Amino acid sequence: MIRSLNTSASGMEAQQFRIDVIANNMANVNTVGFKKSRAEFQDLFYQQVRAATEGSGENRGNPAPLEVGLGVRPTTTQKMFSAGDLLTTNNPLDLAIEGRGFFKLRMPDGTNAFSRAGNLMMDREGMVVTASGNPLDPPIIVPPETVSLTVNRDGTVKAVQPGDTEGIEVGRVELVNFPNAAGLSSLGNGMFAKTGASGQEIIGVPGENGMGTIAQGMLESSNVKVVEEMIDLISAQRAYEINSRVVRAADEMLREATNMR
User: Which residues are paired to 219 by β-bridges?
Assistant: First the structure.
């Protein structure tokens, strides 16, 4: 019965972890470019009371082992990189990626981070940066007298000056992809960092070699579906309750055993 107490406790801890993941998804339901996570679990090792044996002659052996599992543990929180809905903002510096890819950002320490959030803006020097102040890599600087800004689907950025109708090219938005995007590490602020599991970044031009295209004046919303998260929350709650009932039943059995005379 002590074994069942520990096993059920591991189940309760696993469901608590699952609810923590669901809570973070729900909290970011309106976060631009947010990608929801899914908690995944695996069973723990088994205590083998009797092994399976082949047997010979009249000895039939044991066709199946006698063993009991010792609970569950969380293994991964997998990022789900399905596309979110596109929201029209008509802001020229709001960019959305239609398809695969990430924006490449330059961090203060010189390293790179990657993001799907395209709510961009200009700093005092005219450099295009994220809401956290991280510039795009390669950088894009908008001239001070720019009347309007155009970002084509291939990432080409053109600034229209007074008296000029065609505009001049001031840079290009590059996209980055990874062999295993699920292996990226979350940094917060809608940014990810590459890891050994994600593989090296693949830099490309929007619209070429499987990369997505750029949609100006639009933002990609969170891919969290509230109804799905509510269903998962109810499922986790019920699983937690079931494990707590097992703890209570094991406790009652243990009390009966200690009260035997």
Answer: 87
* 150 φ, ψ (degrees, to nearest 5): -125, 130
Number of C-alpha atoms within 13 angstroms, CB side, residue 74? 15
Cα–Cα dist 19/22, whole Å: 5
**pLDDT digit string, tens, across residues 138-187:** 999 999 888 999 999 999 999 998 888 788 999 999 999 999 999 999 99
In this structure, the answer to whether residues 123 and 6 fall within a common structural domain is no
Of 122, 140, 27, 37, nearest to 79 by C-alpha is 37
Rounded to whole angstroms, what are the CA distances from 49 to 6, 65, 68, 200?
18, 8, 8, 47
Are 127 and 154 part of one and the same domain?
yes
CA 161 to chain centre: 41
Beta bridge partners of 128: 122
Q: Are 4 and 246 in contact (CB under 8 A)?
A: yes
For the chain, the residue count is: 261
Identify which of 219, 199, 196 has the alpha carbon closest to the alpha carbon of residue 92. 219
Question: By the 8 A CB rule, do 34 and 51 touch?
Answer: no
| pTM as predicted | 0.86
Amino acid found at 221: S
Q: Is the pLDDT of residue 53 over 80?
A: no
Using alpha carbons, select from 132, 120, 107 the residue that is nearest to residue 157: 120
Does a structural domain hold residue 192? yes
CA distance 146 to 159: 6
